[in-house]
């Protein structure tokens, strides 16, 4: 049993509260990713779970046991950091063997485990080297090996791939995902990189400013962000969010007025609460003519700022009188071909428009079911 539960867990440094009443379930045998911008409290939360940082308030359980005051080494967690923290004067073999030697295991058992771990992580050829004679990726593997070799109940990773170059990061990401599947281990992985989170996680926990903004499967968070923050943080570029000036409605069908006076039809369970609308760049299309089942994303006069070519995709950035937006376009499209034909509309499928209230929380676009009398 290695699931982790947090009940109203908080952290303060002096009078400054950096984590506020965190309620969270980290399921056993899955990869959970803590995602959020720098300074939002990810490392602090991880260190509290590891037992490296005292908990100010609330209750922390690992495998159903309260561990608030249990020492780090009694919690069954192994941690891998961004800085690999290897012993520089010990060979790879001895670095891997160290935790087992400390635990008093027999030399033969140690040899077997070191060899098996080195095999799994493809570092067997380097067992006699010192860390300084390894590449960044190899060092990272040794650091992971040292965590794995203790067969912990819970793996905690704090941005372990941030120091690697882009290609190696992708490779290590796949390896960590493979390890997780092979070991069926409970892993908690911290990152500020949303691509890393989307590709690794069974469950993503989006954090902002010491609060949990949303918990969910990667695609659910992508498709149904619970807040304006999540809408703009997830996706590259994130969702286009435009403020709303006024709303007129008839049931769940509403017409919102953007800040530049443009009108847009939306569906919302609570039209009167709508203060902003959001749409993904890939849900927008350019067309001079009306598009089937779409509403015109009327944003008034606009100027094309430029097109970002990413090879497989491209994004057209537009300055409108209601705000700046990004529209996904076919790869290779030029500014001239986008504007070809004079009048140009931007169209969006009505279901792809999300609405947010004054506090930045998402409003469902389903019609509310009437409460039975
Ligand atoms: N030892 C400390 N004393 C005071 N404030 C701290 C300490 N450690 C972290 N903080 C503050 O707590 C907040 C969260 O930090 P951290 O958990 O490192 O964020 P993240 O890992 O998401 O970048 C930050 O505002 C940081 O300045
Ligand atoms: Mg951190």
UniProtKB/TrEMBL annotation:
Gene Ontology MF: a single term: ABC-type maltose transporter activity
Keywords assigned: ATP-binding, Nucleotide-binding, Transport
Subcellular location per the Swiss-Prot or TrEMBL entry: Cell inner membrane
ABC transporter domain ranges (all copies): 4-234
Protein name: sn-glycerol-3-phosphate ABC transporter ATP-binding protein UgpC
Keyword ATP-binding: yes
Pfam families attached to this UniProt entry: ABC_tran
Chief location bin: membrane
Species the sequence originates in: Aureimonas fodinaquatilis
Domain of life: Bacteria
Family: Belongs to the ABC transporter superfamily.
GO cellular component: ATP-binding cassette (ABC) transporter complex, substrate-binding subunit-containing; maltose transport complex
Membrane topology, as annotated: Peripheral membrane protein
């Amino acid at each position: 049993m290695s699931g982790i539960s947090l009940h109203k867990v908080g952290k303060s440094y002096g009078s400054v509260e950096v984590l506020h009443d965190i309620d969270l379930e980290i399921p056993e045998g899955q990869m959970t990713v803590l995602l959020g911008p720098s300074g939002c409290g990810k490392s602090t939360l991880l260190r509290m779970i590891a037992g490296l940082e005292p908990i100010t308030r609330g209750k922390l359980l690992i495998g159903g046991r309260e561990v608030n005051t249990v020492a780090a080494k009694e919690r069954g967690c192994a941690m891998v950091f961004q800085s690999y923290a290897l012993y520089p004067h010990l060979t790879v073999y001895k670095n891997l063997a160290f935790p087992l030697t400390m635990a008093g295991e027999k030399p033969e058992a140690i040899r077997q485990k070191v060899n098996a771990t080195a095999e799994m992580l493809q570092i067997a050829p380097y067992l006699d080297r010192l860390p300084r004679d390894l590449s960044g990726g190899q060092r990272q593997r040794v650091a992971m090996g040292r965590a794995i070799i203790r067969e912990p109940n819970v793996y905690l990773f704090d941005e372990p791939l941030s120091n690697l170059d882009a290609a190696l990061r992708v490779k290590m990401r796949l390896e960590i995902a493979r390890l997780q599947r092979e070991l069926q281990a409970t892993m908690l992985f911290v990152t500020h990189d949303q691509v890393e989170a989307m590709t690794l996680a069974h469950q993503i926990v989006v954090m902002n400013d010491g609060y949990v903004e949303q918990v969910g499967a990667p695609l659910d968070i992508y498709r149904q962000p619970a807040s304006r923050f999540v809408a703009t943080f997830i996706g590259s570029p994130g969702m286009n969010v435009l403020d709303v000036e006024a709303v007129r409605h008839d049931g769940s069908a509403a017409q919102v007025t953007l800040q530049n006076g443009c009108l847009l039809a939306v569906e919302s369970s609570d039209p009167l609460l709508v203060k902003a609308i959001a749409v993904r760049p890939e849900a927008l299309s350019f067309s001079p003519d009306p598009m089937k089942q779409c509403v015109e994303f009327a944003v008034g006069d606009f100027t094309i700022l430029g097109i970002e070519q990413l090879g497989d995709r491209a994004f057209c950035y537009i300055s409108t009188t209601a705000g700046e937006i990004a529209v996904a376009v076919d790869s290779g499209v030029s500014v001239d071909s986008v504007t070809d034909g004079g009048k140009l509309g931007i169209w969006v499928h009505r279901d792809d428009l999300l609405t947010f209230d004054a506090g930045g929380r998402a409003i469902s676009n389903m019609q509310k079911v009437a409460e039975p009398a």
